[in-house]
Amino acid sequence: MESFKDIEYFVNALSGERLTYLKSYIKSLVPNLLEVREEQVENLCCPDCGSDKLKKNGNYGDKQKFVCKACNRGFGILSGTCVHGLHKRELWTRFIEFTLESMSIRKICEELNISRQTCLDWRHKLLTSINEVFTKEFHGIVEMDDMLMRLNQKGRREDFIEESRRTKTITNRYGNRVSMRLKGNRKRGISRDQVSVLLTVDRYGTVGTGMLKRGKMDSNSLNRVFGNGLLSRLNSDNTIVTDEAKAYVSVLNACGFDHEHINAGNKQWTKGIYHLNTLNNADGRFKKWIKYHFSSVSTKYLHNYLGYFKMLFFVLKSGEKMEEFLRFSLIDITSNFRFRNIENQYQTFLKY
Ligand SMILES: [Zn+2]
């Protein structure tokens, strides 16, 4: 840190006018959340009723407040976004930078001097804000397959689910109940100790993900994921390639899509131009990325990490990743609501 000391010495030696200039210069290097958000919003509307008949209602800190004339709701420009109501908002851009480096929670806490819980909340606020943003339509050949992940209850203290008879629930030294896998006794085959996730990719780098259910996927869960936005991203020009699972045949035929299935059981890997290689590649990369950076992730937040992965490897292409990421994170004004709803969503998912 020799050079940093030098800079400090240099800054201390500056006169008032130059110091003011330096301050404004440094400020211009860090994007201001409010300015970024203001650029995004062309016509500010009420987040409740969508009316654009607003009146100004004073300031709160540096934020302009508005009141909707139609429904009387008060709100600001950041309402509903992931940074709404955030203390220490000024640290948000640095937090995004660290997130992009896949830095560990412990390290981020140290760097930003925030608590572990705040850091975890921020991570999932950020990830929730981006997971509904990239819903581009699919083009041409679309590969679709389910991926199995182990049910993971990392970080949970209450509402613990017994995984299976082959695991034992113990109380660890921190007083948390954790499930310990009995050595060599992993349940074989597909069971409710695993969760199915639907991956959909086309050959142009558009990715879709959906949480299917615990255990083996079926047509009901497939229909549910289709209904939750996937169907609207597919059109009649798409040819969908899947494996030979029956659920795909019934659901895709009912929706009237062109459908090719690859019979991997018969050692068939390609069928003319149709194959599942793009998808299997993404699947492998996702699992490796999770293992390398997070060791494992809780099933409760799996959806968020899928969105994060999608963002890192398929969306962000330019050199200015941080600013892009920041911009994306502020678009969705339902993100704060979805963040508060994660636990409910998880509880519903476990019952499927
Ligand atoms: Zn309103």
UniProtKB/TrEMBL annotation:
It comes from the Bacteria. Residues 137-311 form the ISXO2-like transposase domain. InterPro entries: Tnp_ISXO2-like, Transposase_27_IS1. This is IS1595 family transposase ISLesa1. It comes from Parvicella tangerina.
